[in-house]
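Bench notes, bay 3.
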Amino acid sequence: MEGLVLFGDVIRSRRDAPAATAWLRTLRADLGEAYPAHERLADFEFTQGDEIQGLLDPAADPTKAVVRASLHPAAMPRNGGDIAMRWVIVRGVVDPGTGPATQRSGPAFVAARERLASAATRRERVAAVAGDPAADELLEGLAPLLGELLADLTRRQREIAWPILVDGLRRSEAAARLDIKRATVSVAADRAHLRGIGDLARAVHQLTSRGLEAGTGTRTTGA
């Protein structure tokens, strides 16, 4: 069977392991609510206090997890630095089984582990593999760029980005929710390149879910 494997690693988690664990617990609950049951082939779970894993249906949007984690208020603790994460998305073959993602296995999990290691070496915040050679060539540039743009957002820009990118509100609606002027939202959204971030996320989703030729490419079966 095929699935979308997600690995999310907390960068520099050893500096404050309890905070990393608390964050992953919050993120696990958030993603469990964000993805309906039919989009999850296994529940999200974290391991060793610094990594969360998920297994999604191939048609699901894996970038939803990346964007939510990057913008979530709990990732911006007021008494310290922001919690940064590195994400890897791999579409491929997974072994049948039950239980949370941390208890699942298969070639796509092996490929995700290896891609996470290479992403750390390259200092990429987001990496994705679709198993379609043409799509993967595009993802080599698009996925890391998505990670860079999200990582560059200020706290205020992330607060404004959440209702726009996560909840899908228009700028006027976001301004009303945040009780600020629409012009303030527009300036912040433009400076943060929120439209570009949304476009990149959609492109990564399309390439990982369908490949470059709407699913006609080959799929990854291992490392």
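Next record in the batch:
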Amino acid sequence: MIQEDYVSFETAKLLKEKGFDVYVRSFYDADDMPAQHNEALWDWNLNKENYRFSAPTLQIAMKWLREEKHYYIQVMLDGWACGDHSGYYVVIQKTDSDFEMMLSDAVDEVFYQTYEEACEAGIKYCLENLI
């Protein structure tokens, strides 16, 4: 079964700090690190609460960065990156100007084993270094 991947607890805290205000169904409590999911039929903006952090999927966080902060995160597959098997790297582009600013050929020159690891790294890099 394919399941959604959510941002890490650390990234959820950074998103809240940077103004993430999208209604989602998953969250972290400040004292309880595992992600919890709201079973209700509506989404919440849990970043408005003091001791909770909205936990969006990786794709929702990337869309928020693209639409609200104008940073496009592209995860690329490189078949030669990790020897005998493929690796992923991240390219981040600014989208609100006439020129494309390549911030990094690979975030910190790191190759990631999975697409999801690369997404998380790109989101965290934007939040820590660009916003």
